[in-house]
Structure formats: structure tokens, C-alpha cells
Amino acid sequence: PCPRPCLRPRPRPCPRPHPCYAFSVPDSPPDPTLCHRCGALLPSGSGAFYVVRIEAFADPSPPRESIEASPATRDREIDRLIAQMREMSTQELMDDVYRKITVHLCRACYLSWIENPVG
């Protein structure tokens, strides 16, 4: 472990003497790391790649409710949604609400991606 407490959280003890210049990313894969787009080898400590974290979650605003909707109509809608969810796996239900992923990109792929992340 580090001789002094590290300022950044670590999943495992720090392999370098303090101060820790290169910190380990908790959800990063073990070496060797490959670019998730092109498959290029990304050597640790080379500064030749980017760690991209993507967090997606469902619309947090409350559902719109029709003023004319009767309690019976709302109950039918709830029953329909529950029936629809019964056909989905636990993973599908969780992914439909929240998803977090981490990808590693080489410099070339990062520069291409950052200019048009949804393209």
C-alpha cells in the first residue's frame, strides 16, 4: 500500500510510491487494454489512450397525466405496464432505467468519436 493515504479511491493497493501519478480506474480491465473501437493495444502509462465513461438514465421527469384520465384508465395502464415488464429480464429492466459503461479509446478513435459521439 501507499506510505500515505491516496487521495483517489483504489480497487487495489497502489504499486507506486506516493505521490500516485497514475491511478487505477476501478472498472478498467487488466492489462493489456485494447481500444474498444479498433482493437489497438493501449499500453498502460503511455498516455496514448482515453478512458470514456458513459452514463445513461431514463427521463427523470414525472409522467404526463391526462386530466381527463379516470382512475380506471390509470389502473388499466398500470396493469398493461406490469404485464409488459413480466416479459422482460431483470437485466433488461435495469438497463431500461440506468446504464453506466467505461470504454478505452486510442487517440485516433477518441478524436473521431469526440467530434461526433452519436454518429
Taken from the alpha-carbon principal axes, the silhouette is: elongated
Q: Tell me roughly what share of residues is in helical segments.
A: 25-40%
Structural class: alpha+beta
Nearest-integer average pLDDT:
77
Question: How many helices does DSSP assign?
Answer: 3
Number of separate strands: 4
Largest sheet: 2 strands, antiparallel
**End-to-end gap:** 43 Å
Give a verbal description of the structure.
This protein is of the alpha+beta class and 119 residues long. The chain is built from three helices and four strands. The strands form two sheets. It has a two-stranded antiparallel sheet. Strands 3-4 form a two-stranded antiparallel ribbon. Strand 1 and strand 2 form a beta hairpin. The longest helix has 16 residues, at 71-86.
What labels would you give this structure?
119 residues; alpha+beta; two-stranded antiparallel sheet
Helix-strand layout with pairing:
Layout (H helix, E strand, L loop, with lengths): L32 E2 L6 E2 L6 E9 L13 H16 L3 H8 E9 H9 L4
Summarize the structure.
By secondary structure, the chain is of the alpha+beta class.
